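If you are new to this repository, start here. Below is one unmodified record pulled from the training split, so you can see the exact layout before writing a loader.
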Amino acid sequence: MAKRRLRRIDPTQAAKVSGILYGLMGLLFAPIFFLFTLVAPEASGAGALGIGFAIAVPLMYAVIGAIGTFIAAAVYNLVAGWVGGIEVEVEDRDS
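And here is the target side for that same chain:
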């Protein structure tokens, strides 16, 4: 097995991929949040809020996930410059 070292992560590319993944996760959770608002008492005005929240959840997940990943990748690059990065073992496989 060959050892490889992850020296740098492109923060912008990592943030794009992560933002999409978090947005998709938000799409999974949005219907659950929406269902909770449907069973909430009408006096609270949660019905109208539920639709907006169901739309906002995937967007919030995507934005926060992208920003968090961008920061994490930038910090990783800084630390990897000091200590050399993460070493992984890879194996060539015949198809």
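Two things worth knowing about this chain: The mean pLDDT is 86. The beta strands are 2-6, 86-90.
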